Predict the 3D structure of the following.
Amino acid sequence: MTEQKKTKFSNKRRIEELVQAYTFITPAIIIVGIFFVIAIFFSIYLSFHNVNLFTGQYKFVGLDNYKRLFNDPRAMTALKNTARFALFVVPIQTIIALITAFTLSREDIKGRKIFRMVYFLPTLTSSAALTFIFMFIFNVNGPINDVLIKLGIIGKGINFLKDPKYSLPVIMAMNIWSTVPYFMTIYLASLVDLPKSLYEAADIDGANSIKKFFYITVPYLRPITTFVLLSGIIGTFQMFDQAYIFSNGSGGPANSTLTIALMVYQYAFGQMNTMGYASAIAIVLAIVIFTVSRLAEYLNRER
């Protein structure tokens, strides 16, 4: 076979492989293009219009939807609730997941495989089911009030579900309890690759478990911690289903559980002619998530 024929055959085979490869990924490209790329640009387009979904009319209003957002007290309340939720949940769930993973990674812990399985069970439960469970636990006649009354801490049951002071903290507790096992598993998977020689060298130097944790484990897991923080920030800023079920879609009591994601749903599907405003809120939420995520990544960057 001549050199020219070899080159021609090689090029033909390469083209066939490229066609085959793009054939396999075409369905994914179509799905991503329709439900992500086109959806994003269409949402941006809607944010500059007043939209009537029943008549299909689009009226260009420029930046009016964005101006309305920053002058809307309810939107500011939703942003405050969302920021407060993220500020408390993300650090706490990260710290607990890291400490739990470090503890369960030690070989001297008996029954650690059973503990890992038990701790991971909340992750397997649906968010809706967990919400109903916590609503039962924190009910006026629920187990939490019973324990507090028997201990003499309170005289009568606290209405955690209807009191604005307690409603959002209850959702925070539920979110932490349900997300810690997932992030703990990520930390555990990373700790498997941590060189044992580092701990052995620390033992020779007389380091205790606390010093090993802060001077070996934490620095080694810094890239994983960045991933956990970013995932936590994105998840908390997008928190919707728990607030929706908890408040029956109203964001109550007194807008104490109203989040940005829930507000987007309310304006997009709960009221007429507000799809444009809902799109503007969604775009601003995306910008906030991106900014906060980049800030967290910068602060936790590797030295």
